[in-house]
Amino acid sequence: MKVGGKKQDKGPTKYAFLPWLLMGLGAFSNIIQGKTSNPWLAGLGLLAFNSLYISVVWSSFNPRLRDSRRPLIALGLLTAVTFAIALGFRGNWFLFFPLLSLASGTVRALRGKKLAVWLIALSGAAGYFSGWHEGSGPGGAFGVGYGTFLSGTVTATVLSLFDTIQELNATRQELARSAVEKERLRFSRDLHDLLGHTLSVVVVKAEAVRRLAPRNLEAALGQAADIEAVGRQALTEIREAVTGYREGSLTTELDKARSVLEAAGIEPVVRQAGPPLPTQAEALLGWVVRESVTNAVRHSRATRCEIDVNTGTDRVRLTITDDGRGPVSSGAAAPHGLARLRDRVPVHGGATSGTERPGAMDSGRCGPVGGTGLKGLAERLAAAGGTLHSGPDGRRGFRVTAELPVGTGDMADAEELTR
């Protein structure tokens, strides 16, 4: 797999084990030169040491075995063989202690404090047996002991750095996948918001053209011109969505809402109070108006829709209410949109509540209300420190309420969510 044009590092290859094997064959010189009293027994000991030595290193590098007990078991056997051949043949055979230490540094289960304690004990034993026990003095004891401790420490440090690099590579890949997924979700969300609203407007105005054409051609032509304008605007917005640079506007969406509601035969009532809003608050609330009005036109069968915007000193509250259908009948299951919304929004630090609009799956209508649209809006508002609540409004009707902080600090993180 490639990330950023570079291949992922798969770890050491089989050729990386060649130096480890060669280091374990050094004692063959003692046997060949006849410096060992019992060459056959020494050869068997050397064969056992190298077999266990390679087993420890191989299992420690193998992704399937390195976290199992096999490296520890092999290391225990290697320790026993090392002490046996070192104390049995002495001399240069004490140099197997640094190799034992080196193999110990590869075992993951010994990393950290356990490895430090083990290396100190092993170095002390190696120094004692090679120095004072053999009579080579403090210099010989220090040389073997220091070499033993250093071999394991350096090996463990290098391999820990290698593991860190592997983790960083994996993290980089995960970040790349996350960025791709984030962009895919953004585009899916924007496409839903744009096309869902635009197609609803086109359908409503096309129906108006069909109704008006027989008796009022001029009005029908006006509606047809609106369809053309909506289509052109949709093309522009889709291009902006593709490039990722798209901002909504509450003022623009309120004007569009009036036109769409009137064309659908729904009386619009729009009220605004308070000072102007920051750009990002305008953009977020503009999407709430667009989604809510689209749902009202498509599903509510309402005759009146009220939109109230109240801006205070620190928060703005948007309420959209229609007089359409009443609450869900008892026993009816809420569709998946707001159910998922209730589960996911608290993760972002915000809140949402309510039920889906009744009758969201009516024949001839377009899917469940509040599914992708309200869920996406709730996530955007929650990330900006706001809330989104929706549900039946008394016996009849449906209410959507959105609140946002209007301070510049609270809205700073919302900028990317509206693009």
TrEMBL record:
Membrane-spanning residues: 15-34, 40-59, 71-87, 115-132, 144-162
MF terms in GO: phosphorelay sensor kinase activity; protein dimerization activity
Keywords, alphabetical: Kinase, Membrane, Transferase, Transmembrane, Transmembrane helix, Two-component regulatory system
Pfam families: HATPase_c (PF02518), HisKA_3 (PF07730)
Protein's UniProt keywords contain Disulfide bond: no
GO cellular component, one term: membrane
SUPFAM superfamilies: ATPase domain of HSP90 chaperone/DNA topoisomerase II/histidine kinase
Residue ranges, annotated region (Disordered): 345-368
Name listed for the protein in its UniProt record: Histidine kinase
